[in-house]
Amino acid sequence: MAELVTGGVIAAILNGDKPDGPVVQVLATKRIDSGPTKRIRLNLSDGEYSLATAMLSTELNHLVNNGDIDTNAVIRLKEYQVSLLQKARRVVVCLAVEVLKKGEEVGCVIGNPVTSNNIGKEVSKPPPKVLSANQPLMNGQSDSKSFESPKPLKITFNGGASTPQTPGGTPMRVVPIMSLTPYQNKWSIKARVIQKGSIKEWKNAKGEGKLFSFTVLDESGDIRATCFKEEVDKFYDLLEPGKAYYISNAQLKPANRQYNNTTHDYEMTMRRESMVVPCEDSEEAELPKVSYNFVPIPNLTRHVSQMVDVIGVLKSADDVASVMIRSQNRETLRRNLHIVDKSGSEVQLTLWGAEAEKFEARGNPVVAFKSVRVSDYGGCSLSTVSSSMVLRDPDVPEAFELKQWYESGGCNQETQAMTQATGGAMVSNWKSLGDIKSDNMGGGPKPDYITCKCTVLYVKGENILYKACPEEGCNKKVVDLQNGQYRCEKCNKSSPNFKYRMILQMNVGDDTDTTWITCFQEQGEMILGMKANELGELRDENEPKFTALLKSINFSSYFIKLRVKMENYNDEERRKATVMNVSPVTHVDYARKLIGDIEKLALL
């Protein structure tokens, strides 16, 4: 049985060599649940020594999950990396393997392997025999390769210099990305930048600043990194997508899956001590290009509020439109694309800002999207963020398959829309007002979002407007100083001017119940058909006409998207419904909704 494995190969790896295509036995597998990405650890043996610090690349987890790699299985390491961790521990990351025999075929442990505690030290063992990729596994003669005495690995850095060093002079270890953990120090990675987001600025009560994120990739996997404040100025112009760099001294923390869809359990935060040094052109060739983890369009509903990679054929594209981002009080560009895949499913994807303007919608190209957000708006839809990548006709196998499918008849196939085309109506999660109480909406830790067809019954005229700070982006209520000046405590400024802000309190009803709802500026202006400043002037100059305007919308019906949440008022819990969006009733959409309800009832 000893001829099944490459004898002495574990000793060679521990001494710093990297044998080509070694064959080893799997003594055990262990799942490590350290985060959203599940890792699998292997205990490998060459018949003489065992190595318990081997990790399987997450892309190969299926080999263990489906039973191809089990206890006593014999595998060939076609591609792997060895990294040196703290206390001279060596970790083998298996990137590509070939299963030669399953455990049930072998049936026992080969040889009498013992645990090696001499990691990183000389191990007195005979030179191993290495099986070539085409060499017969048994009953055949083969050439053997002997290993020379172990030599320290020298990694050239920035034009022939030695591996980067810490301020104290200790050499840093170049390690695979997938082996990074917060418990390491003095490490360095060599990776290619596959994505770089734009600079985003923020301003709040705690202060102001800016940030940008980028993603890097090596043979073992990818990881996301973020720069804040001074590090933005330090690294933004240096980092270029497609280029390779040595990166070290970054802080590692658990990955935030709301913004991060890399395969790594952690993400990097660049700090003052962090180093980024470009690699030479000769060193870039060995690093992979962009990697994708495509999610089929029908499976997108399983990833709501997550970041995913998607590929599809561009079926159609809407015109570029200018929209107002209410939360940021700014205007931006938007363009909706409609993409399909081989499943016959179609989804809407929204491009924002410069990406919406520069996207070329000619023909029906295959388009790959990396790191786009999944939303349940309109049922299911996609949206780009600052870190998203859009690539037209990418050079990946999935693109060629899609192109062939679309040109051979897929273009004539009827598609199933994942996103409802509503022309402005919000058609997701239809509910009646009676359902708010009966289903105890808003009683959980998170608010509930529903869409109703409501009729306005009464509008409160009291406290409908307030005087706010005139500064752009500030809506804080001002204090009248009674001297012609108005003071904003937030901006710490006084001004003779102010602007009106609207808070509209309405009682609405449907055929099941009535409830009070709150509309803020944009929704209130849409319902009343008048800007807040114009409404304030009307109230001050002609109160009867102001009252008549409020009454004029009684018994008008709208599609209204509500946010429902239980809130405390003076130690009393009350249910509050806030309008998130409003649009006039479109009878085609409502008829489609009613037909769907009838079809569901027919199945009961």
Task: Spell out the key features of this protein.
single chain, 604 residues, alpha+beta, OB fold (Dihydrolipoamide Acetyltransferase, E2P), 4 domains, nine-stranded mixed β-sheet, five-stranded mixed β-barrel, 12 helices, 15% helix
User: How would a crystallographer describe the biggest sheet?
Assistant: 9 strands, mixed
Number-wise, the strands total 33
Overall structural class, as computed from helix and strand content, comes to: alpha+beta
Q: What is the CATH architecture assignment of the largest domain?
A: Beta Barrel
Distance between the termini: 63 Å
Q: What is the strand content?
A: 35-45%
What is the domain total for the residues? 4
Give Rg in angstroms: 31 Å
Low-confidence stretches: 118-162, 422-427
Count of individual helical segments: 12
Mean pLDDT: 80
* Helical content class: 10-25%
Protein described:
- The protein folds into four domains: 2-115, Nucleic acid-binding proteins (OB fold (Dihydrolipoamide Acetyltransferase, E2P)); 173-284, OB fold (Dihydrolipoamide Acetyltransferase, E2P) (Beta Barrel); 297-417, Nucleic acid-binding proteins (OB fold (Dihydrolipoamide Acetyltransferase, E2P)), CATH 2.40.50; 433-464 and 503-597, OB fold (Dihydrolipoamide Acetyltransferase, E2P) (Beta Barrel).
- It has twelve helices and 33 strands.
- Strands 7, 8, 9, 10, 11, 12, 13, 14 and 15 form a nine-stranded mixed sheet that branches. Strands 1-2-3-5-4 form a five-stranded mixed barrel.
